[in-house]
Amino acid sequence: MKKSNHSVTNNIRKLRFEHNEMTQQQLADTVKVTRQTIVAIEKEKYSPSLELAFKIAEVFKIPLEQVFTYKSKND
Q: CA 18 to CA 21: how far, in whole Å?
């Protein structure tokens, strides 16, 4: 399997703590996924669907690009 030349990073952990120390479980419940999904996204082991990414940004009431950053590894 070929490795991807792209990566999606995120600020979810920081944002959770800035929002009354929201737990991973609270965020997961709000966007209707498992806590394990939030853990994997935070650790950048999993990139969320576009729909889920928008839901997460909506929770924090900020634009998507302030939660997630896309970067080519060739940059």
A: 6
